[in-house]
Amino acid sequence: MSDKKSLIRINYLLVLLLSSCIEKFVPEIPESDGELVVEGYVTDRTEDYVIRLSRSRAIDLKKSLPETGATVKILEGEAIEHQLTESADGAYVSKAGDFVGQVGSEYTLDIVTADGLHYQSSTERMIKTPAIDSVYFEREVRFTDVEDLLVDGIKILVDTHDPTNSTRYYKWEWKEDWEYKASYPNSYVWVPGDRITDPGHPVFNPSPNVFCYNTNSSKQVLIASTNTLEKDVLSRFEIKYVNTLGRELVSLYSILVKQYAISENANKYWRELKGLSESQGTLFDKQPYALPGNVGNLNDPEEVVLGYFEALSVDEERIFIRREQLKELDFPTNTCYYEKVDSVNYWTVQDYLDQGYLIYGVGGFLTAFVHMVPRDCADCTYHGSLDKPDYLP
Hints:
Layout: H1 2-21, E1 36-39, E2 41-43, E3 49-55, E4 65-66, E5 71-76, E6 80-83, E7 85-88, E8 91-94, E9 106-112, E10 118-121, E11 124-125, E12 132-139, E13 142-143, E14 150-151, E15 153-161, E16 169-181, E17 188-192, E18 200-204, E19 211-217, E20 222-225, E21 233-243, E22 252-261, H2 264-277, E23 295-297, E24 305-307, E25 310-312, E26 314-322, H3 335-338, E27 342-345, H4 349-354, E28 357-362, E29 369-374, H5 375-378
Parallel strand pairs: 1-24, 2-25
Antiparallel strand pairs: 1-3, 3-4, 3-8, 5-6, 5-9, 7-8, 9-10, 9-11, 10-23, 12-15, 13-14, 15-21, 16-19, 16-20, 16-22, 17-18, 22-26, 27-29, 28-29
């Protein structure tokens, strides 16, 4: 018995000794703080051109600081200057029609900050972007990023080619919109009574919030190259995957795909940025660092400036996808159908309203009850905006 107690004491002492020797390892990551960040480009479209200037901050601070009071110009060739106006803190704008970029012309971004620092980009020639051949979708079942669940969905694909074999480097952006329809529209509103002799009564709602709309745009880097191929042809390049877990595909979905021809240097920059952004953040991955672009301080070549100014021609295509086109997809059951549609007598309607319920229907003739559901199933503004984009049918 004594030997057993001695063994327990020895094990306990070993645990104490080991725990006292272990210290939490916190790796030191060099922070980029205070670098000028440049975002923006010019295109061959009649639209606002916006150059955003800010100062980077430490890794643990999410928001950058806008660079205000700068003088920002876009130089066209050697003789033409286009002055931009600061429309908001750090946002410098050339209004649509002030000037329009031209394929074959060369553009340089010129910045003088409020404290007199002078920055310029490399000169960028606008390359002609070949036309998009097709934007289309195909069904695909995939595992989700979390919990390894199999979900149904569609992948948005693009085909393109350059018959002159001169583009070789491509970049894409997208913007998506979708329509959401309330499962049980709030077709009636409640007129309260004194709740002593009169509980109140429902009246018809002439404008229930039935259809709402959402929008989202690309944030990841989408690039591809045909530089190693004999022909300048890209087929089935995936722009985006949309699964059935969200609300994007339940009614009407639209996506606008923009295609750009970019230079070899721009491709190199975006490829490296893509690699950094997709890093998983372990000790074996690339650590965050300042990735310089094509803008520099004219008086201090060693200063790191973040971002890449481009001159881009654009080709774009929009497609619309209706629910009827997705009959083969497996959609999860609408969560609103799991909710019980409560039949509520007039005397307790106000209590339900106070809990966030809305009136979806009324009882039959000479009855004193209504049908009520939670607000998120009756009012589409719970999930979107009533403002319908002009381009949606």
